[in-house]
Amino acid sequence: MTVARRPIDSLIDEGFYNREQRIVKAITGQEMHAADWQIEGPLRMLFHVLDQNVAKDPKNLIVYGGTGKAARNWDAFEAIVDSLLTLRRDETLLVQSGKPVAVFQTFEHSPRVLLSNSMLVPKWANWDYFREMEAKGLTMYGQMTAGSWSYIGTQGILQGTYEEFGAIAESQYGGNLKHRLILSAGLGEMGGAQPLAIKMHGGVALIAEVNEEQIDRKISQGYLDVKSEDLDGALSLALTAKDRGEALSIGVRTNAADLCSFLLSQGITPDIVTDQTAAHDLLSGYIPAGVEYQRAQELRDSDRTSYLKLVSETLKSHVLSILEFQKRGSIAFDYGNNIRKQALDLGVTDAFKIQGQMVFMRPLFEEGRGPFRWTSLVGSESDIRRLDQEILEIFSENTKLSRWIKQASSAVHFQGLPARVCWLGYGERANFGIRINELVRKGVLSGPVWVGRDHLDSGSVASPYRETEGMLDGSDAIGDWPVLNALSNAVAGASWVAFHHGGGVGIGYSIHAGFGLVLDGTDSMQERAKRVLTVDPGLGIARHADAGYTRAAAAASRHGIRIPMKRD
Ligand code: NAD
Question: What atom of ligand 1 comes closest to residue 338's alpha carbon?
């Protein structure tokens, strides 16, 4: 019996998807597979996030951040691909937590894909219920940029981490981290950016990681310098580099809690202490002390309750150590993985004495500044380098941005489709987006460019333990802003829009939105880019102005953003 050919078979023939081995490869080249670039764009970004060089665990469709997935399962992945390959230019594909559920006729200028990931009715929004639904095959965890097909490898977070440590360096140490020791943990797909970002500011990074493969992966990607299994050796290497003022990064194969206890026992107080294990997800993201990484899954499966007890003990000890470092003089902060709340729930009553990362980042958000990223959809490295030049010319007066672009262009290894990220503000994003579209139209760039951003941004997220912690007017948990963000990006002309729950800090603690814009050089995209890239950061300014931030109110006046009810 012959099996009817499916649209996806053409991508199998071309070697972009191996069904037997579940290998996905980023699609490159000028030849389109879908009806136009507005549809080819999301298709290519889906393949890109699942490329072996991009995703953390591609065989399980996991892209990053604990279990952040791009599609619910392989059948759903194939159905999404079939749908995109047959989608008409005026149709929209609806994706419910990683599964394609319907295609409707809309308009040519409407988004081609609308995605909702991990959403639950608030009263049911907890991990237990989520996992029950996940086990029934009814939902998936989309993290922030996994389920919205906007992840660009560790570089995406590298820029954010560069900004975060840069903001600390500027406010505390006169602009750099030379002669500073930074202690952290987790060399995952996001946490793996820490060592290089710290080095870019001249500091010494000592990072605990239980999974040796992750350490090797980060070394091979150029994000980490050396690996050590010996706590004494690692510490003496770090202290020597710190004394000499040499930038260095060391991945220590050990548990975070153990490395902290060791440093405390040696009387060493790092200048900065943080953590980027995936502690938002206690079951899958945080490994207990004394358990080899490879054995963790076995223990989880055989006795989940006992496993979680071990996790709790380790996490408590870890957070108590961070509090002790803080008492001894370290700058300690929660790097957005919800470790403080997890510790508080386990009885560490002082956990929130550790500050959140927004202490350093909020001033940027007040002005609508946030992470902006782009990829060459045809896979051209030279197009990305051409855009590096463009950024350096357009924003030549911004020295921090210029330093980043120069360092990134030499230090960052591309993963999947070549990409770049930098933080841009209101006005800057629209100008740059329009410029990219022009360069595509003129043929200066060899093909269309996707632009988008992290969901961690100025106006796109409500997350009371992270982005919206400690808002001036107490509006930390007000969830309307990300909803407005998604809706306004959809009507302003984004190529796709995604709305998610639980990214970064876990189920129950955040809701957030993202979008993708395919700059294909057309007049229509010129207009749509102008609107989306203005509305999106503009809402961030409005959100902060509404909460009483004077810098945001001033930015709104300066940019002529109309706010009907101004604060006194
Ligand atoms: P990931 O799952 O890819 O990696 C986590 C890593 O931590 C893994 O390599 C794991 O082996 C390691 N690990 C787990 N428990 C450990 C322990 N006890 N000791 C040492 N190593 C341990 O996750 P990721 O994508 O790197 O993200 C990490 C966390 O940081 C997530 O919670 C994410 O939501 C958060 N995050 C926050 C921001 C932000 O800007 N606020 C940005 C990125 C990530």
Answer: 32
Residue 422 annotated in active site? yes
Residues 236-251 have pLDDT tens digits of 999 999 999 999 999 9
Residue in 362, 356, 336 with CA at minimum distance from that of residue 544? 362
Closest atom of ligand 1 to 280 CA is 32
The runs of H, that is alpha helices, within 73-123 are 74-86
pLDDT of residue 1: 66
How far, in Å, is the centroid of ligand 1 from the Cα of 256?
Answer: 11
CA dihedral (117, 122, 126, 132) in degrees, to 10, reads -70
Assign residue 114 the CATH number of its domain.
3.40.1770.10
Q: What is the pLDDT of residues 154-180, one digit of tens each?
A: 888 888 899 899 889 988 999 899 999
CA of 209 to the centre of ligand 1 (A): 9
Question: Of the listed 235, 387, 422, 555, which one is catalytic?
Answer: 422
What CATH number did the domain enclosing 178 receive?
A: 3.40.50.10730
Domains held by the chain: number: 2
pTM: 0.87
Q: Mutation test of ligand 1: which of 144, 157, 190, 315 has the most ligand atoms closer than 8 Å to its C-beta?
A: 190
Give all strands (DSSP E) within 83-203, no chain letters: 91-96, 99-105, 113-117, 181-185
Q: Are residues 336 and 396 in the same domain?
A: no
